[in-house]
């Protein structure tokens, strides 16, 4: 199988991820912070090491401002529902995933928040000047994706973060796509809250993610329960990360996430991005030469996090993805990718797209074989 669905979940993982998760499960996987025995203490120490590794990767100064979650969707729900109140105004973009849009639309219906959705060009690029024009006295949040999960377009987070900071508006970044490929520095980018999954570009397992919350931002917890701290109180602790970490954490998964990030650090983020772009560029240029193909992604290292989105003019995206899987053993993702507004922007709402997303373990041979498969499919259309 040639796996080109890394935007959904990266595969395979570095061997160290598998090995350390297995070791955790076999040797010390007790509840962290829930006991005084040596296995619980060991688990707590390893968890803190992971918290520090993740924090360093994003230049988070205080690791206790990072809480672990099950995925980016949970992180985004914590952030959005934890700070917005009745009458607040939010600015977001046309390329957001449903993990952003559904919580916002739910709050719009339930408590009356106001939402401004910035339009984009045919690739989803926005005019960042429109952000500043959209800010009003009730604007409390700007939330946007780092990179689109549909076509890989990268948003200018540095510039947006500065606008948010200058206007005293909280800035939330959904780094589901791009984390592990694009350098993220929460300080220099003026990111107030960062939501990310562990199982995509960070090379960790499913069931892991995180939310960074800058000092001074108080989030109302939407889940309450045991934290191992202040157990005498009937109310949720307000200190981070306990305020957002109720219940038993996915300790082996978080350990796996740590070693996924350490693998990235060992290669170098710039080297990893260069490898992904080399493969993306080769695939993009190969598809350009195929008759009846349509491309929706930009062929640019600065503008693409590693996705090639395409269609054939005379075929449904799900049909092409099915043939790639069954006849050529190539894994892709077709359809609307849980981002209907993005497809409205790209003009693909009716048929979706076929998404190819490269990973650090893909090779030039993988890409050349994929191009040949697409050529064969096109010849039959």
Walk me through this protein's architecture.
It is built from eleven helices and 13 strands. The protein has two domains: 15-266, Aspartate Aminotransferase, domain 2 (3-Layer(aba) Sandwich), CATH 3.40.640.10; 268-380, Aspartate Aminotransferase, domain 1. It has a seven-stranded mixed sheet with strand order 2-8-7-6-5-3-4, with helices on both faces. The chain has helices at 15-27, 38-57, 72-83, 98-111, 129-134, 157-166, 251-267, 269-288, 317-328, 340-346, 364-380; strands spanning 2-3, 66-69, 89-93, 114-118, 139-145, 170-174, 193-197, 209-213, 293-295, 307-312, 330-331, 333-335, 353-357. With 381 residues, it is of the alpha/beta class. Helix 9 (317-328) crosses helix 11 (364-380).
Could you list some keywords that capture this structure?
about 375 residues; 11 helices; seven-stranded mixed β-sheet; Aspartate Aminotransferase, domain 2; alpha/beta; about 40% helix; single chain; four-stranded antiparallel β-sheet; 2 domains
Question: What's the arrangement of secondary structure elements?
Answer:
Blueprint: E1 2-3, H1 15-27, H2 38-57, E2 66-69, H3 72-83, E3 89-93, H4 98-111, E4 114-118, H5 129-134, E5 139-145, H6 157-166, E6 170-174, E7 193-197, E8 209-213, H7 251-267, H8 269-288, E9 293-295, E10 307-312, H9 317-328, E11 330-331, E12 333-335, H10 340-346, E13 353-357, H11 364-380
Parallel strand pairs: 1-11, 3-4, 3-5, 5-6, 6-7
Antiparallel strand pairs: 2-8, 7-8, 9-10, 10-13, 12-13
Helix pairs in contact: 1-7, 2-7, 3-4, 8-11, 9-11
